[in-house]
Amino acid sequence: MINPLLLQTFLSLSETGHFTRTAETLHMTQPGVSQHLKKLEAEMGVALFYRHGKKIELTPAGETFKIFALKQHEQEAALRESLGEDSPHQGECKVACSGSMAMQLYPPLLELQKKYPGLSMSIEAAPNNVIIDAVKNDTFALGLITNKIEDPELSIRKLGHEELFLVLPRGRDHSWAELLDLGYINHPNGAHYANQVLEKNYPGDFKDLKEIPQRSYINQLNQILLPVSHGLGFTVLPESTVELFPDQKAIRKAPLANAVRETVYMITKKHKPLPNRYQFVKEVLGKTLQRTISE
């Protein structure tokens, strides 16, 4: 690699054609300028200048070398500019969240990308513990989780909440006996959701989800309500997932005495500020959830 100081001296010499003027421009001594040129010519193995007394001019090799030096100078300037630039309209935005939130958030984030084509949206659905590790390991810059944590590496703030619904086939009652008869349609977050809703609304009956027959299991979020719509069981899901199911006439949300809401928390690296482009992402998250909670 060519020493950038030697390149700078060479370019100044090629512009001024004079050792003294170059020394003044670069705040060097004239012998220092001469030494730089000798080192550069020795490294290249060719003479870069003709010397005519105090004046100099480029040799053919020097002319070729000047093209290279100028390109290097331009590339360095562009690199410095890009390093100092934090454009709100350029770059990849990486967000990890639950599957239900991914379904809800991905469409408006794509609309944001259409508005600013320089942005690239990367959304990954994952459970809370995976999201936390992904943010800590810089796999994702921003994560949305539903359990409050204390971690010295992370910043956490309340962003909004999602209501959990007990969903039944249309025409079926939500009595405890009816739930036992129906059985449960399980999914990756099924136990976590069901425990919260059933404990709060069936305190005298519910002890453990294992006591309720499991009729089916599916890990495809958009398919969880399909067996419910066919009368094969009940399940518990966030509001956003329920609202996206196409056959709303085949299902019903049970009118619960005690609503259960999961708070949504946004997590980021504590000592690593998000790039400017994430400001747009955070605005979309708040607007889409529509239930912003102040910090």
Helix count equals 11
| Largest sheet geometry | 7 strands, mixed
Distance between the termini: 51 Å
Q: Which geometry do the CA atoms define?
A: rod-shaped
Rg from Cα: 32 Å
Order of helices and strands: HHHEEHEHEHEEHEHEHEHEEH
Low-confidence stretches: 291-295
Helix content: 40-55%
Any guess at the CATH architecture of the largest domain?
Answer: 3-Layer(aba) Sandwich
Instruction: Please name the fourth-level CATH homologous superfamily of the largest domain.
Output: Periplasmic binding protein-like II
Q: Structural class, from helix and strand content? A: alpha/beta
Determine the mean pLDDT. 89
CATH topology type of the largest domain: D-Maltodextrin-Binding Protein, domain 2
Residues in β-strands, percent: 15-25%
Number of domains: 3
Keyphrases for this structure?
seven-stranded mixed β-sheet; alpha/beta; D-Maltodextrin-Binding Protein, domain 2; 11 helices; 295 residues; Arc Repressor Mutant, subunit A; rod-shaped
Q: Could you give a quick summary of the protein structure above?
A:
The chain is an alpha/beta fold. The protein is 43% helix and 22% strand. It has helices spanning 4-16, 19-25, 30-44, 60-84, 99-115, 128-136, 176-182, 190-201, 225-229, 239-244, 278-289, and strands at 49-52, 55-58, 91-97, 119-125, 142-145, 154-169, 184-186, 214-217, 235-238, 251-253, 260-269.
Describe the structure.
This protein has 295 residues and is an alpha/beta fold. It folds into three domains: 81 residues, Winged helix-like DNA-binding domain superfamily/Winged helix DNA-binding domain (Arc Repressor Mutant, subunit A, Orthogonal Bundle); 96 residues, D-Maltodextrin-Binding Protein, domain 2; 99 residues, Periplasmic binding protein-like II (D-Maltodextrin-Binding Protein, domain 2). It has eleven helices and eleven strands. Strands 3, 4, 5, 6, 9, 10 and 11 form a seven-stranded mixed beta sheet that branches. A two-stranded antiparallel ribbon has the order 1-2. Strand 3, helix 5 and strand 4 form a beta-alpha-beta unit. The radius of gyration is 32 Å and the shape is rod-shaped. The C terminus is likely disordered.
